[in-house]
Specification:
Order of helices and strands: HHHHHHEEHHHHHHHHH
Largest sheet: 2 strands, antiparallel
Distance between the termini: 38 Å
Strand content: under 5%
Number of helices: 15
Number of strands: 2
Radius of gyration: 20 Å
Strand order of the largest sheet: 1-2
Length: 362
């Protein structure tokens, strides 16, 4: 909004020239989201505490200490995250950019699905919200719409292709089958983040790290000089997504203030489904789907642990892990929550460095 209002005045007021720089607006988006969260976050959290007298329902088959340490803590912390993210993004982004609106559409739509899931859990006072089938159908329909628009907006040579990291100018053409791949990435990313959200701060810091990585990727891919130098496919106008990523970083930092161990608010499906969907959509738009799998490897590992556990139990009747997702396995082994969270943060940081290295090692 500010870009559209103030940059046209730059020829008369030179300071407004700053608004043409993505780096300036991305930095402002980070700070704005952080400050807005500190302003609207506390009253929303107090309201959630008031409305959710019993807090988020805790799994009785989970780690026993959760029945003591997690009892009474409200969920739906994704509400202030998505509000803050949307406000900051709309303030600093170019409103004429279609890519940003697509990502916002997915973020808010998936957040609404998560909200209804959280609402039903609170209303019924159990861990069963929306059925998995209903959630998946809703996510898939939204992903189909978004993927179709993304394909229509993408450059022709990349519209149905996936690029390979570490290889310059190498792409795999999927033809019309690409829409299936795009849907899989968006829906898979959303659910992977959701599965990982089980301990205080466990998802928040990796989310911030991944957002930083994709802010850099969106900026480079959308910059003709830098993309040419690094031999990365150039996609016009997607640099604006770096502003969205910056807003997500700021919102994540604000949420971490209240979600850091011991948390006083949980993200819930409202936040995890929306954020995961946003990251998946950005990877599809920037043509860095495989890099998302690397940078978000922690989410991939957690998801795979669930798949392995369920598959093996159905086939053999035995469990591979003490409990899935993987972070609960380590809890069952006696690791403290803070140990698991911090070690998973470290792993996420290492994977981010590997993902960033794909931009240069070609």
């Amino acid at each position: 909004m500010l870009y559209n209002l103030l940059f046209p005045l730059a020829d008369r007021i030179s300071v407004f020239n700053l608004f043409k720089y993505l780096t300036f607006r991305t930095g402002c988006a980070v700070l704005t989201a952080l400050l807005v969260f500190f302003f609207i976050g506390p009253p929303i959290i107090r309201l959630l505490h008031k409305k959710q007298s019993c807090g988020q329902p805790i799994r009785t088959d989970g780690p026993k200490n959760h029945l003591l340490t997690k009892q009474g803590i409200p969920t739906m912390g994704g509400i202030p995250i998505l509000l803050t993210l949307s406000i900051s993004t709309l303030l600093w982004v170019d409103l004429a950019n279609s890519y940003v609106w697509i990502v916002l559409l997915i973020t808010i739509s998936y957040g609404l699905i998560g909200f209804f899931d959280d609402f039903l859990k609170i209303k019924r006072n159990n861990t069963k919200g929306l059925s998995g089938k209903l959630k998946l159908i809703g996510q898939t329909i939204i992903a189909i719409i978004a993927s179709t628009i993304i394909i229509a907006l993408s450059p022709e040579q990349l519209s149905h292709a996936i690029t390979l990291p570490f290889f310059k100018n190498t792409i795999i053409q999927f033809g019309y089958g690409y829409i299936i791949a795009a849907i899989f990435v968006i829906v898979g990313s959303s659910n992977a983040v959701n599965l990982t959200d089980g301990l205080d701060g466990l998802v928040t810091v990796p989310m911030i790290i991944i957002s930083c990585v994709f802010a850099i990727i969106a900026y480079i891919v959308g910059h003709s000089v830098f993309s040419n130098y690094l031999q990365i496919h150039y996609i016009p106008k997607i640099g604006e997504l770096s502003v969205f990523c910056g807003a997500l970083v700021g919102a994540g930092l604000g949420f971490l203030w209240f979600n850091a161990p011991p948390a006083i608010i949980f993200m819930g499906d409202t936040g995890s489904l929306g954020i995961g969907g946003a990251l998946g959509a950005i990877s599809v738009i920037t043509k860095h789907e495989i890099v998302l799998a690397i940078v978000g490897g922690l989410f991939v590992i957690e998801t795979v642990s669930v798949i392995i556990q369920v598959t093996c139990f159905k086939i053999t009747g035995k469990r591979v892990f003490l409990m899935a997702p993987l972070h609960h396995h380590f809890e069952k082994k006696g690791w403290s929550e803070s140990t698991i969270v911090i070690r998973f943060w470290i792993i996420s940081g290492i994977l981010a460095l590997i993902g960033l290295s794909t931009l240069k090692l070609r």
